[in-house]
Amino acid sequence: MDSKIKDKNLVKPQDFLFGETEEDALPLDCGRKLRSVNIRYETYGKLDSDGGNAVLILHALSGNAHVTGYYSEDDRKPGWWHEMVGPGRPIDTDKYFVVCSNVIGGCSGSTGPRSLNMETGKLYNMDFPVITIADMVRAQFHLMRHLKIEKWLSIVGGSMGGMQALEWATTYPDHVHSVIAIATTARLSPQGIAFDWVGREAIMTDTNWQNGEYYEKAPENGLATARMLAHITYLSDESMSRKFGRGLQETDEYSFDFSRNFAVESYLQYQGARFVERFDANSYLYITRAMDYFDISERAGGNLSAAFAEVKSSFLVVSFSSDWLFPSAQSREIVRALVNNNIEVSFCEIESSYGHDAFLLEIDTLGKMLSDFLRNRHQEWKHG
Questions:
Q1: 356 catalytic, yes or no?
Q2: Which of 323, 352, 353, 378 is catalytic?
Q3: 378 part of the active site
Q4: Which residue among 59, 66, 175, 356 is the active-site one?
Q5: Which of 159, 313, 328, 352 is catalytic?
Q6: Among residues 140, 122, 109, 129, which one has the least CA distance to residue 285?
Q7: Fewer beta carbons under 10 A from the terminal one: N or C of the chain?
Q8: In terms of Cα–Cα distance, which of 135, 153, 146, 110 is closest to 280?
Q9: Do the domains spanning 3-187+297-382 and 194-287 agree at the CATH topology level?
Q10: 372 among known catalytic residues
Q11: Between 191 and 7, whose confidence is greater?
């Protein structure tokens, strides 16, 4: 292979289809079953003969299965956590067999609202069943079985990915050796639910949404607005002040109208425009609703410690000082509940000005923690 191509770390997405019969269909929390479920996923590295090096990475709201590498030599943009995952990187694919899949309800290859409903021959759109974080994890468990993995060395997730990691540890405790939960929460806060509601309202009041039955023209304005709102929650006041301040863009003085004046306005408009190129409006509705419903303590009567009573995995919990979407207090709540169950847990709050997005950006500091934690868990596995 050409060295240039090898350096590009080429990867190929794969598909796993299950639930083609009523008996094998995926049961959902809403009471319905989902048939003909496709999971789009990618793998990196090789699985050890004892299966002890399998690492599952779980993506956030707007992520997908493409966590690292490139699809072709000419591909200019790598996966969303490329600096963290790969040969010689903190999650080292020379050592670990890494798996990442797109969640059900998504729009990057896994079955979602814009998928074809085999029973009707039409797109699901709003007939797609409402899903939960637990439903996403149940689908991932089917993929785990397909890959002949009995137990994950570690499950790694940031933000919504961290929610899925907590769900894995509580629902399938015998199949999880360790968990790395980053910038996440045990239950979405009322503030988080509120932001999601406004984002969905922006989409559903867009005249092009058409009750989810859009074909020729998507509700781009609504989806872009939802993204702009959400993107603000991923940043911090400090990072926005440092990056933009009150600087003007495309003008030297106020225009005294309602067109773009400030640099931060142009930045948000750019983020919204790029998002509609790669994401689906209906998927946004379904995934944010799944996050709204997430409360790991709900099945234990609201007692978070009781929710972790059956957990058998060790934990690394990481938060960031400027994250006001999932603040450190929410991570500490998880840590206290784990400690109450005598579960081995390490916690670190990383000083960062990046806000919630720090889990994607603080590669050096976070990477060292992940590398050390995975190495120790791997040695633990090997030596029993």
A1: yes
A2: 323
A3: no
A4: 356
A5: 159
A6: 129
A7: C
A8: 110
A9: no
A10: no
A11: 191
